[in-house]
From TrEMBL:
It comes from Agrococcus casei LMG 22410. Keywords: Pyridoxal phosphate, Transferase. Belongs to the trans-sulfuration enzymes family. Its cofactor is pyridoxal 5'-phosphate. This is homocysteine desulfhydrase. The keyword Heme does not apply. Its EC number is 4.4.1.2. GO terms for cellular component: cytoplasm.
Amino acid sequence: MSTAQAGFSTRQIHAGSIVDAESRARVTPIYQTSGYVFDSFDEGAERFAGTSPLRAYSRTDNPTNVVAAKRIADLEGGVDGVLVGSGQAAIAMTVFSLASAGDHLLTTQLLYEGTREMLRGSLLRQGVTSTALDEHATEADWLAAVRPNTKAIYTESIPNPVGGVTDLDLLARVAKRAGVPLVVDNTVATPYLCRPFEFGADIIIHSTSKWLAGHGSVIGGAVIDGGSFDWAANAERFPQFTAPGPHGRPSAVAKCGRAAYAGLLRSSTIIEYGPTMPPTSSFLLLHGIETLSLRMQRHISNAHAVADALSRHPAVARVHHADLAGSPYRALADRFTPLGAGSIVTIELHGGRAAARTFLDSLDLVTQMTHIGDVRTLAIHMASTIHGKLTDQEREAVGISDSLVRISVGLEDVSDIIADLTQALAKTEGLA
Ligand SMILES: Cc1ncc(COP(=O)(O)O)c(C=O)c1O
């Protein structure tokens, strides 16, 4: 069935699905195979040349993975997508396909710490530099920061972990004027809450380990091509998209047209680096995606109730969630995430690190764990874990205070979540 005109909940169940010709299985099977039979000598060569529509090898082309990639691409409004083994691999593959030694990236300052570590670690060692601009930077500041060797503007729609919402309009304008793609990590928002292609993004990244899968049992990543960036018009900056391959093989633009970005990822970056998602993982991911809209509605209503209860609690010094009435991100949330600004609620406690320790060690229903977007409510102290390698000044610059606790609000009965958080907060009294 064509789902082109269907609503979000229909597409999250049906988009991209296939029915196996022989078994007629309704649920997309796990195609647990490394490779695919070549019917002849010549046909094998055609598959390697990419001139046959049939598959060659599961590193880049496994049917279960393709269904999940197509489904996410459809929900995002993209033209094509690829899956990889983790969100981190999705970020790495995206950067590797755009930038090499001597190149530069422009990023927002508030990013998932794993991304910042990659920018300051491996990427820097490989000669890719980056400049981060904070949320007060104006369009003129961004344009002034663009260099001839800048290859992308990189951001997160809802930055992890301190909430907020990014001004995608502003970044899309800058990226357009600079002639570089706007790359948006849309993990925390999911396509249910925000579709960055509608605001001018060119490439979307997901850690599918989080809300897309939702059940906390599988790691994965996705890169989605919006089909909007004109690689041919910017061929000088991005020759890899228009240069013909060996033996006269067509360039990514000549072969894939609007989907040239996904084409290059598949035919070069991913096949060369090999961060493949196992098909068992994409099978589990598909099962999560089927209920995304329903889960996100509940995640949002639970997060709103938790944020509201915690902002009235005397042991809590500050609550970060862009949907709160006093949030400085409220107007951006209304524009970019009108259905809700995600289900991470970050709190700062009276009583510093000691209060955070007592609070976390007193939780019962809520799990102390590093992860977000799970059906279970999870909490973690950021300064001693994910941001543990940063200096005090570096932590302060990205808003990670000593008492900051990130709560990924799950799908339990919200009264039970609030009761557990409240009893743990009561134990911190006297520590302020
Ligand atoms: C916003 C964001 N992007 C990417 C990642 C990396 O994803 P993964 O853990 O699947 O490698 C994370 C992980 O927490 C994340 O929060």
